[in-house]
Amino acid sequence: MFLFNAAVMGYGESSWMKIFLDHLDAIAVNVANTSRLQEECFVLTIHLSKVKDSVNLPEFKAVMLAALRSIVPDEWNMDHEMAWNWLWESVERIISSTISFPRAYEKTIRTFLFEQSEANMNQLRAQTYSCFFQRCPSGQDHFKQSTTRLYFILDRNYEMVLEIFENPAKVVEDLSALGLRHVGFGVPVEFFPPFVASAVEALNTLTTDEAISQAFTWSETLISKILMRVILEGSTIVMKAINLNEEAALRKAISVAPRGQRAQQLLNITAGTQSFSPLFWAIDSGSLNSAKAIIQDPERREAKRGPYSVLAQGKWAPQSDGDQVYTACAGACDSPDNLLMTGESCFGSCPKIEVPWSPVAKFFGVKSRDEFQRMIRNAGANLEQYRQFQISQSVIFLYLIMQWMVAFFEWAKATAVVLGLVIFQTRMMSVNEIEMAVMIQ
After folding, report:
1. Which fold has domain 102-234?
2. Cross-referenced CDD domains, in alphabetical order (predicted)?
């Protein structure tokens, strides 16, 4: 409806309106969250700054209100009009005040970083960590890697500071994935403000230009906002319990979840545009006690939940990678066959659940969703084939033993006959020799 109204009102060729429309949903949903609203507006500002057309925000307001009035004509009233006008005024104020920043900031930061020598960069890296550990001594418990690894983290940070101006959509995706990894590592969000302040302070030791400091601070603050938001959204009580690697803690954490949401909280966490599986993370990070507790979830055993059965089948299947997966699943049940039997009745008719696709594809060794569905549908048949193969193995083994025994007896019989002939021949020769000796005498 928006694009139709834009075309009717003569704005159909405005490419920036389509960009704005893509971000409007996130802006409207998070209008009550000031920090998230500011983050979305800053990212949108970077997108709009790369558009060659002139951006006239009042034009978007007119098209937006016209589309809203057309969608809900019966329910639209003055309260809706005032609410959307207030939202637009807040968004317009933020975007109008920052839309000129990205182009100037990108050029300033790029020029500064590319002019620095390797010695200056090493000084910048060392000074950043020195200031950070002075501000936040507990950060040393998390930054325990080698100096090379710590410098690599800062280099990646500087790359993102520049890349967020070039390709903001990709950087937001990467930061969402990185934030979810920080959730698994249990990194507190309280570390990010002092880290940004330390990075800016270290930068000020190399330059006195206020424009460089302001540009670097703006970019670093935006990156830290995205990471902190993703970590807060992904830090559920289940993930905190997994980091402890205690079965009792995980059972206590999931006990408060409604039965209908139990599987979702144990198998999928969504933060922004990225999804994350606590079960996959528990296995990959070595928290096998937590993985065992998830697989042994009593509600799952009682309800025979399809998603758990599918995941259990996939973990035990030969396509899985790593002995840790087998150890977790084998420790959760009496045997892998028992693990399979818990969901045998679900094969071919498992209820639908939104599980993140990329870890599923990687873990099960499949390349497409169709291949994954075929694997699930054939799981029952594969299980029966496996059992028949085990039976056939036993039959073949017994048959081979019997054949070997028959062959052994035939060999023993033939050997006895040969030995008998040899002995008889020997005795006959002895009798002939005695008769000849008697005749000679």
Report:
1. Globin-like (1.10.490)
2. Mb-like
